[in-house]
Amino acid sequence: MTYVTDPKTKAMPFKDEDDPRKNVTSEGRLDPVAVAIRLRPKVETDMASHFAPSDPKLDLSRTKPVKAILKKRWLQFALIVPNQLIFWLVIFSGLIGTVVPGLNFATAITWYIWFCIVFVLMVVVGRAWCVMCPFGGFGEWIQRKTFFKKTQKSLGFGLKYPKKLAAYGLVSSAVSFLVLTYIEEFFNIAGPGAPHDTAYMVLGIVAFATITFLVFERRTFCRYLCPLSALIGSVGSMGSIAGFRTKDRNACQSCSTKSCMRGGEEGYGCPWYTWVGSADSNSLCGLCTECYKSCPTDNIGLYAQAPLTSVIQPNKKRMDIAVVSAILLGLVVFQQVNALSMFTSLDDWLNKQTHFPQYPNPIDYVGFIALFALVPVAIYKVGAILFSKGTIATTDGTFMTKRSEFRNWFISGSYALLPAIGADYFARQLPKFFKHATRIVPAVAHPFGGTAKALYNYRLLSDSHIVMVQVAIMIIGTLASLYAAAKISKRDLVLTNKGSKVAYAYFAVAILAMSIPMTLLYIPMHAAN
Q: Residue 190 to residues 70, 432, 524: CA-CA distances in angstroms?
């Protein structure tokens, strides 16, 4: 940029781009032209500049071996088949195996091991489970009428998911998760209870997924209705796999075929309805490789990223993930509280008053979850009232779409809280794993006459040590949330509040106010299952 020197004021050329106050005339006055220009920051209009902060740098598909295997149509089939076999074993073992939960393969693999594995995959990778999920895989095979070959015609009605429901994004998945969790609690399936209940639950999910695949197009089930999608899409944003992203954003924008969305000769259109040209997080990439196979210009790669990148860096953070964050917080805190003896008395009293047969009473289940979920909503509402500048004009629309100061604070604060919520969910799974994971060996041996009695009652850690691990994980999650809050405040709230430092201080207090009680609850829980 060139500046014209005024012969009267002898204005010097603008040299300090960061601080226009340093650009003065020979008389010691600010150069009004330079100041005015710098007060209007340059607006980048190209896609690459817009998404630059969230675009990862490490392309895992740049090497020939990785590139070759990602092009194979059998890749996802090969990843799904082992889990498919395991879950059909879960169904058959639950229905015809021993009624002793600790000796039945269905209950041992599902409740002692599988949930912990899913949470590790989620936190480390992101949607790693989705690429190998037996529920989605089974439904997709039926829908496409093939295991992995590219076909032109699909089975089913192929309807589009209603727009009004799609507008709520992952919220519908979170509701499915709440319903499934209530069913688990009511029938004591995850206790674990009777093995056949675990089999019925898995069969129910398979049936629900298959019906959805036959009614709607693509992976509508995975995108909107799967009970785990909201959890993985939100907490999994901490993961180090960014998913499939475009190498050149502008090339995607000018692409005339959009084969990644419509499908091409080698691959289907994205089953998750995610356009790589606008993707800035890993939340909605199912890692299915279809866009990679379909792209005619080889402009898509599989990228790795630093942990927490998809929490901090997305340019357009999603309201549905913020709402899901609050719902998941309410659910996990409810699960902690209901492990305390005082809650048992409350639930029993409520059941007597409402003549409800057993735990959990739906009133306190929904009531407590709603109460705990409203805590971050209230905290961020107060922050928006106290510290916003009022620079964002409120617009009309639904709660999910309208702009407001509160929306900006709520979304930013909810994203920052995700690491602490993820840590809480992971810590909640640990007692079963450390107490009973070794039972998988006698469970596998039992149908063949084996016993492995020593392993049946063997514990990897004592109750006191389990609590120590749970508290340590919560501390790590809280620190990660504080770090995310600092980055998000500096990135997203500089222009909408009284300084990013004020926003961070408020977020830090809010995170500590919520995470410390969540952490301390593990002490009186005494490693309860």
A: 36, 10, 21
Contact call for residues 327 and 320 (beta carbons, < 8 A): no
**Measured distance CA(101)–CA(371) in Å, rounded:** 34
d(C-alpha 264, C-alpha 255), whole Å: 13
* Partners of 159 in the β-ladder: 216
Comparing 499 with 286, the larger pLDDT belongs to 286
Tokens 């519908």 belong to 172
Residues in Cβ contact with 226 at an 8 Å cutoff, skipping those fewer than 6 apart = 133, 135, 136, 173, 176, 209
User: Side-chain half-sphere of 278: how many Cα atoms within 13 Å?
Assistant: 8
Number of Cβ atoms within 10 Å of the Cβ of 13? 12
Tell me which residue has tokens 């749970």. Answer: 470
Give the angle 415-316-46 at the CA atoms, nearest 5°: 145
Q: Contact 430/116 with Cβ under 8 angstroms?
A: yes
| pLDDT tens string 506-523 | 999 999 999 999 999 999
**Closest to 501 (Cα-Cα) out of 515, 525, 485:** 485
DSSP 272: T
pLDDT given at position 223: 96
Gap between the Cα atoms of 284 and 169, Å rounded:
10
Q: Are 125 and 240 in contact (CB under 8 A)?
A: yes
What is the percentage of the chain residues whose pLDDT exceeds 90?
73
Three-state SS for 11? Answer: strand
- Assigned token pair, 146: 């093939």
Q: Which helix (H) or strand (E) holds 387?
A: helix 362-387
Q: How far is CA 362 from the centre of its chain?
A: 26
Tokens of 143: 């829908």
Distances in Å between the Cα of 444 and the Cα atoms of 20, 98, 131, 334 are: 72, 11, 26, 34
Least confidently predicted of 244-248, 251-255, 319-323, 507-511: 251-255
Length of the chain in terms of residues written: 529
Query: Which residue from 308, 275, 279 is spatially nearest to 291, judged by alpha carbons?
Result: 275
Q: Give exposure, 327-353, as e/b (b: 16+ Cβ within 10 Å).
A: bbbbbbbbbbbbbeeebeeebeebbee
- What is each CA distance from 112 to 54, 438, 442, 527, in whole angstroms? 36, 9, 13, 14
Residue 263 has pLDDT above 60, yes or no: yes
For 390-416, b/e burial (b = at least 16 CB within 10 A) is eebeeeeeeeeeeebbbbbbbbbbbbb
pTM of the model: 0.89
Note the pLDDT tens digit of each residue in 4-42: 444 444 444 434 444 444 445 555 554 544 444 444 445
In sequence order, what are the beta bridge partners of 391? none
SS3 content of the chain, % helix, strand, coil (to 5): 60, 5, 35
What's the start-to-end Cα distance of the chain, in Å? 65
> 273 is written with which tokens?
């309805």
What are the distances in angstroms from CA 180 to CA 64, 87, 206, 225, 226? 43, 17, 13, 12, 10
